[in-house]
Amino acid sequence: MICGTHPDLAYGSTNSRYVSLEREIYEYSHWGAVLFIALVGITGNVLLFIMMGDNRMNYLSYSVYLKFLAVSDSLLLALTLLQDTEKTFSLQRLILLNSGLCKLMFSLRILLTNLSPWLVVGLSLDRYVCICFPLTRERLCTRMKAIIVCSTVLGLLVVLIVPFLVDTELIQRRCKPSEELRYYYICIRTIISSTLPCLLILVLNVLILFQIQQSRNFRKRFTRSGTDSASPQQDRSTRPLVLVSVLAFVTLLPLSVSEAVETLLKIVGTDSNSVALNNKLRSFFILIYILNFGQNFYILIGTSTKYRAIIRARFDWLKWNRRNEQNQAMTTIMSPDVNCPGSGTTELSLVSITSGNNTSAVDANAPGISSRTL
After folding, report:
1. CA angle 48, 53, 55 (to 5 degrees)
2. Could you tell me the CA-to-CA distances from 12 to 7, 26, 276 in Å, in that order?
3. Which of 16, 141, 179, 322 has a CA between 20 and 30 Å from the CA of residue 311?
4. Which residues are CB-neighbours of 164 under 8 A, at least 6 positions away?
């Protein structure tokens, strides 16, 4: 063939373009999924924080854990979306701008990925004490104790990441810990941030569910009707929280197993096909993993009428407050200027009187004001 291209070369070029196109579609699809999870999750976390700030919830111990979770999970979702956007669209990565940003963002990600699972462990422990040791509930399951636990967990994790703030290096456009911290990083990644908290969450929630079932059987045995009408309020409020912990375990487990397998394959030095297969599954596991950081609000409102009523009341209050401000602003605008020159008397317009009456009517029917609502 004097002119033209060899068939094998043409086939290789076409195949490489097809592989490149397939990779781009996969990357954009993955980014779209991350974007959706991040936006929905951050919105849910904001609503969760608002809901836990309600007067009916603010004094409870578990509201503290859920508030801490809402803040840390939102930060992690935002950081994940930022890094995935930079990677998908080949943008300048902030973590690679200089050594300082490399150390800061690398350490921040380790802090956030560890903080959320251990806060869920704290929440599970709080529920375990309330259900299994009810006599100590008033003393141990308090808002102040929950703040102390969350602050202690945060402080310990900050101490844990201090070596990364010192010894993380920017080498060949890659931000990674130094060789001295390699095994320390593997230990944190495979044990501290995933395996150990997953195990504790599982054990605590199995004990909680066992105790709830035992209590239910006991009540059925000693009630005449044989019904569970005497079920205590704390059991009903605990079930959605147990579901939060259980689904956290379900979403954390796949990536935990994947990282443990990846570490084992690198140590054993197995063939590249097994590593490639684990990497393909890892992308799917990451999507499941980040679901954990945006699901809590939707779990609570989906499983409890109490939480739905609280968030509905909060929205009604915001609407009333906005309407009240608008009426007050209209009253101010339409009121006459008492210092108008040439006018010896003050004349009230019909619009002002009408606005004032509307404002009074709204105040009387404001949500959250009547004794029945409170």
Report:
1. 135
2. 9, 21, 22
3. 141
4. 103, 106, 107, 110, 177, 181, 185
Paired strand residues for 174:
171
| Token pair in block for residue 58 | 């603010």
Contacts 24+ apart (CB under 8 A), 85-90: 85/31, 85/35, 87/27, 88/27, 88/28, 88/30, 88/31
Q: Show the CA angle centred on residue 235, arms to residues 58 and 299, nearest 5°.
A: 65
90-99 pLDDT, tens digit per residue, is 888 888 888 8
Q: pLDDT for 103-139, tens place per residue?
A: 999 999 999 999 999 999 999 999 999 999 989 988 9
Distance between CA atoms of residues 345 and 341, nearest Å:
10
Token pair recorded at residue 73: 């999970």
Residue of 300, 249, 293 lying closest to 72 (CA atoms): 293
189 with 258: CB under 8 angstroms? no
Q: Which of 163, 157, 193, 160 is nearest to 177 (CA)?
A: 163
pLDDT above 90 coverage of the chain, percent? 43
H-run or E-run covering 176: strand 174-177
Backbone torsion region of residue 283, taken as left when φ is above 0, otherwise alpha when ψ lies between -120 and 50, otherwise beta: alpha
Asked if residues 44 and 261 have their Cβ atoms less than 8 Å apart, the reply is: no
**121 Cβ contact partners less than 8 Å away, ≥ 6 residues apart:** 197, 200, 201, 204
CB 139 within 8 Å of CB 54: no
| Integer Cα distance of 170 and 177 in angstroms | 9
Spatial distance between the Cα atoms of 201 and 250, rounded to a whole number of angstroms: 10
Cα–Cα distance, 71 to 330 (Å, whole number): 37
Predicted confidence at residue 230, as pLDDT, reads 43
The pair of structure tokens assigned to 145 is 């104790």
Joined together, the tokens standing for residue 125 give 């422990």
pLDDT at position 271 is 58
Terminal alpha carbon distance of the chain: 89
